[in-house]
Amino acid sequence: MEKLFGIPMTNIMLVMLVLLGTCLLTVAFIAWRRPVIFKLGVRNIPRRKAQTTLIIIGLMLATLIISAALGTGDTLNRSVNSAVLTTLGPLDEIVLAATDDEGNASIGTILTETMPESNVETVRAAVGDSDKVDAVAGILLSQSPVLNLGDSYPYNLQSIDDILRAATASNPTVFIAGLDQTTIEDIGGMQDLNGNPVDVSTLGDNAVYVGKETAEDLGLTTGDTIAYISGNEPYFAEVRGVLPDTVLTGSINPGTASMLMDLGRLQEITGQEGRVSGIGISNAGGTREGLEYTEEVTSLLRTGLAEEDLGVVTIKQDNVEQAELIANIFVTFFVVFGLFSIGVGVLLIVLIFTMLAAERRAEMGMERAVGAQRRQLIQQFLAEGAGYTLLSGLIGTGLGVLATWAIAQGFSGLAEGLFSIELYVTPRSLVIAYSLGVVITFLAVAVSSWRVSRLNVVAAIRDIPDSYNAHRNRKQLFWGVVMLAAGVLLAFLGMNVDQQAPFTIGMTLIPLGIAAILTFFGANSRLVLTIAGIYLLLFWLLPSDLFTPVFGEMSGNIEMFFVSGICIVAASTLVIVQNLDAILSVITRYGGALRSMLPSVRLAVAYPGANKGRAGMTIAMFSLIVFSLVMVAAINNNFANAFLSKQANAGMEIRVDVPDENPLGDFRDTLEREGVDTTQFRGVGKMVSMDNLEEVKDEGGEWLSFIVLGMDEGYLDSAELEFQAHAEGYETDEAIIEALRTEPNVVVVNPAYAEDAPANFGGPPTPNLAGVPTEGPFAPATVEVRVPVGEVREMKVIGVLDSSLSMLFFSYVGPPTVNAVMGGSSSSATSYFIDLADGADASAFASNIERVLLPYGAQGVDIEQEMEESQAQQQTFMYVLQGFMGLGMIVGIAAVGVIAYRAVVERRQQIGMLRALGFQSGSIAQAFVIESAIVVVLGTLSGTITGLILSWVLLTSDEFSQGVDIQFSAPWGTIIVTLAVAIFAALLMSYLPARQAGRILPAEALRYE
Amino acid sequence: MRLGKKKMSVPAEVGENTIISANNVVKSYDTGTNKVQALKGITFEVQRGEMVGVMGPSGCGKTTLLNCLSGLDDVDSGTIFIEGENLAEMSDKKRTNYRARRMGFIFQVYNLLPVLSAVENVELPLLVSNVKSAEARTKSLEALERVGLRDWSGHRPAELSGGQRQRVTIARSLVNNPAIIWADEPTGALDSRSAGDIMDLLQKLNSDENLTIVLVTHDPGVGQRCHRIVQMRDGEVVGEEFPDRSTTQAMAVRGNEAFSVVS
């Protein structure tokens, strides 16, 4: 992985190393110049081994999360990269028919366009005798159904029907590549999976090589007999060997079934004598090294081919960059969601050191009394913190690699058939994870120890609360003014640059600043802070439909998700903590209803009430992690539901994809002829790809990829098309459909193409069409659509498809436009859609249609099943993500254990007194568990409620759902299981030290100091 | 004969008025590196309504004796009877219940819960005895009234002076109408005036309510206000004194150590 949030990883590593070095030098300075302080610090580490272990676990988890997030990025990057390099093999660039005057070409034309084979020599001349090029090769690609004939003797099979009956397995779409042996030798030769050299010149008419995917799909091994159909003619061949899938074997995309034969033979079969689909160039050096020469070779080609109608596609570089982009999307998700867990880890670190400081308050007071400076107290804590973090960082980084492995296993299923997951973590990621973990701990320790170092010496020694301090109160006024001023500045800045982050952070600081100032002037702090908290909750949970009209449209990236999570949780924690006494009194009233529990409840509520800061931090920790888990679960659940409806594909149940090589004629007639019961068909429609409409000029004036499909009359009759935005003059759905039927050059588009649609996160940019809204009426918008080689056509957008039609991803035109644009030429791909009668088995029909149309290379798809499979993949990703975020939950649970353990140590003498007064050991344990339960349940409830509200607000807003109409439903099952596990585990963690507390002999506890 | 190592193995030998009876109590601590014998076979009795002071130098076993007698700590050997009940035969639960109902404790460092108010601290023993919440509150306020702190009932310990905190502790020890009050250095952390007030209060409770009080102190002034002073040294009882009878009995228990005898 090369970049994170757009910053080069090497730069991040260098910055982190500098920060780590500063931390280490600080500790070294303390050890060298303040050896006593250093010893005082580090000697605390082995004092209580169980507690030290828990602290190390807590600190370790933060590093583990960072390490796992970065490791996952590396692994995905490597895996996708390897898949790209394996698929492309030695092929670095490919020369195709040019699509514009600037020498550009599109890989999409490789199956539709051919060129004279003589161009191979032209290209060879262009690269001349450059030592950066190893080979130049003409390649012809075709598509064909392939069947495994098993033991059947081919010459007994007289017709295609005979072949279909004899076949043991079939694949309707196998890509066939034709190469000549000289080319293969020029690129250094090829080998089959058994290591035997490939020689296509000896194949003759009756032998082929098959790709690994084809072999696995059809159960083929060397020596087996296959049949393949081209131009409705069957051909028989023996499998000479099985090859790794690469573009040179015909596998143009990962997971594509392929077959290789002699170029001349393929030209003969397909009737493309003397022609090739493209000309591949292999750069000097190996598969990976060849990339380095891409620019140089491309420049040579562009110069040399300037006068030709040929374009260059830097296929390897493009695909590697695409792989990098995909890996980056994944890692950004993991890092952003991981930030929640890291946030919890930071809170835990602060809490741990605040508690340690509280425990040692008297000790520190004494140190101050005998002359220790405040900074020396901080140094003492830093020395101790260094001891914990240097070790825990190492363990955490190592375990992060293990977690990466576990995540990689989760992804293996997801990537199945596309690429294989290869565990890979760069040393750079490990350095960043370790340094970041250590630096975060250092900062947390420094801040928490700075706070406690400001103790009142006398109060600390006598163990009484710090008295009122007017000086401190003036600081409150100062900080209030600073927050208010910073808030106003940030809010204005955000509004000026239309950025959400500064605006929302500013709007968050303003009420906090005002609250601090009002409190200084005597306002009731509880009231003021509660109002500030409620305001912040309302502000952050405001639906964008209300936010945008009030504050205007602003842009924000995915990290806003984390910022909003932190602010919402902070606000809800503020409200809870300010009203904790009221909440606790309710708990006392109802919790103490059972008289035997009253003493435990009384104790349990007393401590959080008296230590609001500590209780607040624990509540915030749980709230944060539950909030993020609920959000992910809710998004996952609702998006899955939104896409899994029959309406998603306009009521059509079956799709039959047919390549143009095998024209079908009349679809319904063909099926009837083949014995398919078409009486079950309620409607049949067709869509063709409009190959020569490729790009549109978006609102920014940039030409961006634009996919247009042409609907036929049958489709317009059968499909249930609905629109959420209608152009003037086309006020109803029927009017739009009628226009598609009758008017040329009118188009309807998916809401993702609307002017106000959000950017397509992570993927290639989607055009936003000027004047086309997501919803509501609009003036018909004219857009410029580009056809190959420069011709520009104007089209009128008359409607925006309803978001419920979630499988209609692109833009669509009707029959007059198809005729006008295509002019009778055939399309590279056609899809037929079938609306079945109620009760008909879509899956069985799809299989049957595919079987009977196999000679045509048709693929039958049960659309609902396809959607479910696609959703299952997405859900697998979300489950892996949820699992990763579960690490944050472990931090929270460990935190409860640490806090309970510390509480037992802190209150040991009090426990002795309580036992002396007659508290049973069980009551003591019960009090500890109830105390933990109160904070855990409050945090959990706060996280669940705010998480559900925000997910509802987001999912029902057009901006986030990208126009998908979502009927929000809370993922109660996931929530209940997650929360039950979290609460149970947290209480178990507090029960262990609580039980230990109950077992302490009273006299022993009373002696404890 | 009340002192010495005479074996008292059965409750039948305990007099009707005897509320505490310890016989040959041995207690040692393992510090990890060596074993310290804190009580070396203590035999000891307290009569109902008696106010006994246990005195001796630091580390002589006074607090350990008090902890063992009150059931806060286990003994290695020997028997302890409280109101005729053998502590060793009580389960932890029964012993804890017994403490809640029949004993009150006063500690030198007060041991009040800092997170609870004075009245909430006082009502804790009642709550663990399943007394109704409202009744517990009434009794606790009454107990605070008896120690003169009714007006301070809502204050937390940090908001009270040392003497006031100790009075809250006394109120807490009284609230369940105990038979015995155990006090470990009750005036140890107080100035002489506050210490005098506390002792006045304890003496009043002892005389008015016939409460049995066993207190550990190193302050001779406090000791002189008890009916009897038991002297300890190196884990053994080495003598006793009856300040109010103006007589002192003493006996050398070991070697040539002896206490002065004053007539």
Shape of chain A: elongated
Instruction: Tell how many strands the DSSP assignment of chain A holds.
Output: 25
Helix % of chain A is: 55-70%
Shape of chain B, please? globular
The end-to-end distance of chain B, rounded to whole angstroms, is: 19 Å
Mean pLDDT of chain A: 82
Note poorly predicted spans of chain A. none
Q: Please identify the oligomeric state.
A: heterodimer
The major pleated sheet of chain B works out as:
7 strands, mixed
**Separate helix tally of chain A:** 33
CA radius of gyration of chain A: 34 Å
The poorly predicted ranges of chain B are 1-13, 246-263
Write the layout of secondary structure elements.
The complex is a heterodimer of chains A (1009) and B (263).
Chain A: E1 3-4, E2 7-8, H1 9-33, H2 35-42, H3 49-88, E3 93-97, E4 115-116, H4 119-127, E5 133-148, H5 160-166, E6 169-179, H6 181-186, E7 207-211, H7 212-218, E8 225-230, E9 233-243, E10 258-262, H8 263-270, E11 275-276, E12 278-283, H9 294-304, E13 310-313, H10 315-359, H11 361-369, H12 374-414, H13 427-453, H14 457-462, H15 470-497, H16 500-520, H17 525-540, H18 544-551, H19 559-578, H20 580-591, H21 598-610, H22 612-643, E14 654-659, H23 667-673, E15 681-689, E16 695-697, E17 703-705, E18 708-711, H24 713-718, E19 723-726, H25 733-742, E20 746-749, E21 781-786, E22 792-801, E23 811-813, H26 815-822, E24 829-836, H27 842-852, E25 859-862, H28 863-906, H29 908-917, H30 921-955, H31 958-961, H32 972-999, H33 1002-1007
Parallel strand pairs in A: 6-10, 7-9, 18-23, 20-22
Antiparallel strand pairs in A: 1-2, 3-12, 3-13, 4-11, 5-6, 5-8, 5-12, 7-10, 8-9, 14-24, 14-25, 15-18, 15-24, 16-17, 16-21, 19-22, 20-23, 21-22
Chain B: E1 18-30, E2 35-47, E3 51-55, H1 62-69, E4 77-82, E5 85-86, H2 92-102, E6 103-107, H3 118-128, H4 133-146, H5 162-174, E7 180-184, H6 192-209, E8 212-216, H7 220-223, E9 228-233, E10 236-242, E11 247-250
Parallel strand pairs in B: 3-8, 3-9, 6-7, 7-8
Antiparallel strand pairs in B: 1-2, 1-4, 4-5, 9-10, 10-11
Helix pairs in contact in B: 3-4, 3-5, 4-5, 5-6
